[in-house]
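Budget justification note: compute hours in this period were largely spent on complex prediction jobs such as the one shown. Inputs:
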Amino acid sequence: PGDGPNPGGGGAKPGGKPGGKPGGKGDAQSEKKHKETIIDLSKHMDKPIRVKFAGGRECSGILKGYDPLLNLVLDATTEYLRDPEDSSKLTGETRQIGLTLCRGPAVMLICPADTLEPIANPFVPQD
Amino acid sequence: AMASSGPQNPSQIMPLELVDKCIGSKIHIKMKGDKELVGTLLGFDPYVNMVLEDVVVYEISSQGKKVTRLEQILLNGNNIALMIPGGEGPDN
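Corresponding output:
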């Protein structure tokens, strides 16, 4: 009994262990797994970065601040506009939107702004 | 209410502090999809759900922009992608 999506009753732990008992072993495990970002944004501070969002938006700007949830503050932000008919295509047009905040939950990709370049489609068979 | 933050570099701008400074001013919000809003920020919570006043909502499609006006709203923060403090909207 007690087998369900959140066994053990303690709602606070994300991804509770199946069959885990509250307290004891459960707590020791969750202490070790303290959440850590896999990217160190301090290395990118005051440098231009490119950000892609869930939903297709893209922008770039100078990283001026961040928090552990990956909210970002970008300065001199450029937004890359998309084709209204095909939202996966960039038109090449941009808009300068100044100082912005990028919401961590929506951020999908972060990379240095100068390391992104278009390449020929590798999936199209070359005859 | 400020979200707790990790190690702080004094010369960086904390994201939620930037939002806090914007309370009382205009803010331009871009959602994950093709919707944008401009309004006066009255407040927000740790999830960045926002209370906005005198809001103009722009729905952007290949057919153009559909504009709606709303007096006061609670905006669910789940779909917010980008926020521009002091922003005036997609027509600038």
